[in-house]
Design goal:
13 helices; 379 residues; Spore Coat Polysaccharide Biosynthesis Protein SpsA, Chain A; alpha/beta; 16% strand; 7-stranded mixed β-sheet; 3-stranded antiparallel β-sheet
Length: 379
């Protein structure tokens, strides 16, 4: 029994230490800047490509933010697969409202991969007038200094700059749950990886030099993986350059979410991570509070201490630190945060197993698979 107690104590102590260390890193990296970053005097020209598809929550606000950027040399290309998509009319109205902004909408769907997003942005990539290209999803809310902050993250050994989404403006239980997945769990660990030199791109924001992608084979090279962000990460690592994350990442307003939508999205991301980076995905089995919490309960029972006191102390330390991160970064922090986070951590082992169970998923009406050779098709 003594060996088991020592083993449980060591595991629980290490888990808490990793939790606190990761939160300390994220607090430093994710705190909002005190003021907007001004454009540099020698601001390089940049093309923004925004793929659009359907009417999402807050879509008018997120797309409008593209026209409000404080940057002197920028063109904006909105890409839609079909002229019948209702979002096209919204984009055209925003372009008409801002005639001083060089922006246009491109329509067409050339299939070069199983990834519908990659197929959609291809025409924008070809039409881009500038070497520096940012691909940013339509549901990201861009601050006025968005491009300046991307440029500030670029250093001598950088191959690309990215940013994870930060859930904001949730409505209802399931949107609150998605916030605790996106913010204090997934974004936190992405910043830990980036800080130790193992940055992973995330498709919400991808900032490239066009020549680097063209040298690797162009956008078709991004089709070598089911997700373009995973392919981008591997391309940069193969050339000895780093993927870097922007400090203080950008919000994704959520609105209302349904339980199935949140679950399906997390399963899709789990299967994509398992397929692209299986060794790192294996480590996810030990993430979350469930296993160290059970270890703390075992220690209390085995040593005769109060289970209630042990459980309470563990939960205060574990989730109190996460709440401190959310407060420091200015992220959404609900009153019942610990309950949402405990539900998340109870789901993590099941999601991890789901990631291994099969390869298929549905994304925006397209049935896809992470199995090599599978093609996307209408669902």
């Amino acid at each position: 029994m003594t060996v088991a107690i020592w083993a449980a104590s060591a595991f629980c102590g290490l888990a808490i230490a990793f939790q606190l260390a990761s939160i300390a890193i994220a607090i430093v990296r994710c705190r909002m800047p005190a003021r907007e970053v001004p454009p540099p005097d020698d601001a390089p020209p940049i093309t923004i490509i925004r793929p659009v598809c359907g009417i999402d929550n807050f879509v008018e606000a997120t797309l409008r933010s593209t026209f409000l950027l404080d940057y002197p040399r920028c063109e904006i290309l909105f890409c839609a697969a079909s002229a019948r998509d209702p979002v096209v009319a919204l984009v055209q109205s925003l372009i008409a409202e801002h005639p001083h902004v060089p922006a246009k909408v491109l329509v067409g769907d050339e299939r070069i991969s199983a990834n519908p997003k990659l197929n959609n942005v291809l025409k924008g990539w070809r039409a881009a007038a500038h070497d520096r290209i940012v691909m940013v999803d339509s549901n990201v809310l861009l601050p006025r200094d968005y491009l300046q902050r991307l440029l500030a993250a670029w250093t001598f050994d950088t191959g690309m700059v990215s940013a994870p989404p930060i859930g904001s403006h949730p409505s209802g239980l399931w949107a609150q749950l998605e916030c605790v997945f996106l913010n204090t769990y997934q974004a936190r660990w992405q910043y830990v990886a980036d800080t130790i030199g193992l940055g992973f791109a995330q498709g919400k924001t991808l900032f490239y030099h066009r020549g680097d992608i063209e040298a690797a084979g162009g956008l078709r090279a991004l089709a070598t993986e089911a997700a373009e962000d995973a392919a981008s990460t591997k391309i940069m690592r193969a050339t000895g350059r780093r993927v870097r994350l922007v400090d203080a990442p950008f919000p994704q307003p959520l609105g209302e979410r349904r339980r199935g939508d949140v679950w399906d999205r997390q399963v899709r991301w789990a299967r994509l991570r398992r397929d692209s980076f299986p060794s790192f995905y294996c480590l996810e089995a030990g993430s979350g509070a469930l296993l160290p919490f059970l270890a703390a309960i075992f220690i209390a029972i085995a040593t005769g201490y109060s289970v209630i006191v042990a459980a309470g102390a563990f939960l205060v330390i574990w989730y109190g630190a996460e709440m401190l991160l959310a407060a420091s970064a200015g992220w959404h922090l609900p009153l019942l945060y610990p309950l949402h986070a405990m539900l998340r951590d109870a789901m993590l082992p099941v999601l991890w197993l789901e990631g291994w169970r099969e390869a298929g998923f549905v994304w925006r009406g397209n049935a896809m698979s992470v199995d090599e050779g599978d093609q996307a098709k209408p669902a």
